[in-house]
Amino acid sequence: MIPCHWDGQQYPASSGRRALERDQKGFSGHLTGLKFIFGPCAVPALDLVDQRSVTRVRSPSGRTLYQVLGSSGKLYTCYSSCHFCTCPAFGFSVLQKSESLLCKHILAVYLSQAMGACQELAVSEEQLTNILLAEEEDEG
Asked: For residue 5, what is the DSSP state?
């Protein structure tokens, strides 16, 4: 069991939407609140948390990024420190159109952080650099 940082209760590591649905008394209102605040990306983000799709990648220097395995099977890199995701939905809906505050991948990162449900991956500085360079090549 892992304590949830935003309500103090204990939940299994894979808690996401299933935990929200199980706890009818306490969390049904939270699920409604998440849907109200974050719109249509709330439930898909919780599904990503349930599937343990969020990995925190950390180097010895403490630099951190997140990789999220999207529902399409593609791996997206998210930076919670600057609120950015490499997915097309973030680029279009958030950056170009300003229709959303975030994409489902960034929300999944934030929810995983709050629930303590991130996978952990320690990498060397060189490996982290290679991850960042691979993202740059994919975009260019």
From this structure: T
The upper half-sphere exposure of residue 1, i.e. CA atoms within 13 Å in the direction of its Cβ, equals 6
| pTM score, whole prediction | 0.76
Cβ neighbours of residue 17 under 8 Å, at least 6 residues apart?
A: 31, 43, 46, 47, 49, 50
For tokens 């973030």, the residue is: 90
CA distances 6 to 11, 91, 113, 122, 125, Å, are 12, 29, 10, 26, 32
Strand order in the sheet with 84-85: 84-85, 75-79, 64-69, 54-58, 119-122
Per residue in 20-41, pLDDT (tens digit) is: 554 444 555 677 778 887 888 8
Tokens of 136: 């740059």
Answer whether 86's CB lies under 8 Å from 77's CB.
yes
